[in-house]
Design brief:
The protein has one domain. It contains 1 helix and no strands. The longest helix is centred in the middle third of the chain and has 121 residues. It is rod-shaped and about 170 Å long. This is Sjoegren syndrome nuclear autoantigen 1 homolog isoform X1. It comes from Agrilus planipennis (Emerald ash borer). InterPro entries: SSNA1_fam (IPR033362). Keywords: Coiled coil.
C-alpha cells in the first residue's frame, strides 16, 4: 500500500506542478491580452480621430467644389456676355461704317453738284 501512497503522492505533486504551469501560462497570456486590448483601444481612438478628420476634409472638399462650380458658371456666363458685346460692337461698327460710307457718298455728290453750280455761276 505504501507503494500506492507513494505513487499517489507523486501524481499529486505532478498534478500541482502542471496546475502551476497552466496558471503561469494563463497569467502570461492575460498580460498579452491586456496589452492587445490596450493597443486595440488606442487604434480605435486613432481611427476615430482619423474618421473625424476625413469627414471634415470631405465637408471642406464639397464646399470648395461648389464654390469652384460657381466660379465656372460665372466665368461661362461672363464669357457668353462678353462675346455678345463683341458681336454687338462688330455689328455697330459695320453699321456706322456703312452709314458713314453713305454719308460720304452724299457729301461727295453734294460737293460735285456745288462745284458744278459754283463753276457755272463763275462762268
Amino acid at each position: 500500500m505504501s507503494e500506492h501512497g507513494a505513487a499517489l503522492q507523486t501524481y499529486n505533486q505532478e498534478l500541482v506542478k502542471c496546475l502551476e504551469e497552466l496558471k503561469n501560462k494563463r497569467n502570461a497570456l492575460q498580460v498579452i491580452i491586456e496589452r492587445e486590448e490596450n493597443e486595440k483601444m488606442q487604434l480605435e481612438k486613432n481611427m476615430k480621430v482619423i474618421q473625424d478628420k476625413l469627414q471634415s476634409c470631405n465637408n471642406k472638399l464639397i464646399q470648395h467644389i461648389r464654390i469652384r462650380n460657381n466660379y465656372d458658371q460665372t466665368i461661362k456666363e461672363t464669357e457668353v456676355g462678353f462675346k455678345k458685346i463683341l458681336e454687338s460692337s462688330q455689328t455697330l461698327l459695320n453699321l456706322v461704317q456703312h452709314e458713314a460710307g453713305k454719308l460720304n457718298t452724299c457729301i461727295d455728290s453734294l460737293c460735285k453738284i456745288s462745284s458744278i453750280q459754283y463753276n457755272a455761276s463763275c462762268d
